[in-house]
Automatic annotation (TrEMBL):
Residues 3-117 form the Response regulatory domain. This is Two component transcriptional regulator, LytTR family. SUPFAM superfamilies: CheY-like. GO terms for molecular function: DNA binding; phosphorelay response regulator activity. PANTHER family: STAGE 0 SPORULATION PROTEIN A HOMOLOG, TRANSCRIPTIONAL REGULATOR-RELATED. InterPro entries: CheY-like_superfamily, LytR-like, LytTR_DNA-bd_dom, Sig_transdc_resp-reg_receiver. PROSITE patterns: HTH_LYTTR, RESPONSE_REGULATORY. Residues 139-241 form the HTH LytTR-type domain. The modification 4-aspartylphosphate is found at D54. The lineage of its organism: Bacteria, Bacillati, Actinomycetota, Actinomycetes, Micrococcales. Transmembrane segments: none annotated. SMART domains: LytTR, REC.
Length: 250
């Protein structure tokens, strides 16, 4: 089952395409976004297999969105959907597998899904042969009303703020609408570990570790963060696995 995203600033167009895709047994979950910025935020939380992008969206166009997605670790297969033919050349320069003209016909969409299936098979075979991509995971964040991309490996630690999380880098901090518990699960393989109910830290950015004192803590950059007694054993285990030895003295 293929998970897809439809990004279009016109809801009737989204509804029509979602209905047609829903008739194809190869399609699973269908996500929707009414703008390029909304699509990026959604894909940061919910990676998908394929994205159907309208070209003429205000703000981030479909082409702008495609360029941003090229920096994602899990880049979806791209299909552009538009009312004109003028952007076909640029669409394929962006490695799209198809270019659909509105109104979308059922049989034409069926062939497009077939191209997506073939592209996913090819990507899977390439991954098995060459290993995982060395491209860093990119995260969409909003600062001052502007959406930008930052590298996940630049994040030093994450702080819980209700249903949100604040990502702290060397230069700034960014609020994202993702619970800390979700990031704990999603970023575990990237070297992030929960040290406190309010903090998730990157092991690669630890500069000081004090686990043997009455008040265990870790230091990341200029921030000294508490380590809860409940999470102390799991942190010690992760440190042992990464060959990082904690200080036992205060």
């Amino acid at each position: 089952m293929i998970s897809v995203l439809i990004a279009d600033d016109e809801q009737p167009a989204i509804d029509e395409l979602a209905f047609l895709l829903g008739q194809d047994p190869r399609i699973g979950v269908i996500h929707q976004a009414s703008s390029g910025s909304e699509a990026i935020r959604l894909l940061t939380r919910e990676p998908v297999d394929a994205a159907f992008l309208d070209i003429h969206m205000p703000g981030l166009t479909g082409f702008d969105l495609a360029r941003a997605l090229a920096r994602f670790e899990h880049r979806p297969v791209l299909v552009f959907v538009t009312a004109d033919e003028e952007g076909a050349l640029e669409a394929f320069d962006l490695a799209a597998v198809d270019y659909l003209l509105k109104p979308v016909r059922t049989e034409r969409l069926h062939r497009s899904v077939g191209r997506i299936v073939e592209a996913l098979k090819a990507a899977s075979a390439s991954h098995a042969t060459h290993g995982a991509s060395a491209e860093p995971e990119m995260i969409a964040v909003t600062l001052g009303g502007t959406t930008r991309m930052i590298r996940r490996d630049d994040v030093r630690y994450v702080q819980a703020q209700g249903d949100y999380a604040r990502l702290h880098t060397e230069e700034a901090s960014y609020l994202v609408r993702v619970p800390l518990s979700d990031l704990e699960r999603q970023w575990a393989d990237a070297g992030f570990v929960r040290v406190h109910r309010s903090y998730l830290v990157s092991l690669a950015h630890l500069s000081r570790i004090r686990l043997g004192s009455d008040h265990p803590s870790v230091t990341v950059g200029q921030a000294e963060l508490p380590v809860s007694r409940r999470l102390l054993p799991a942190l010690r285990e992760r440190l042992e696995q990464t060959s990082i030895r904690p200080r036992t003295s205060p």
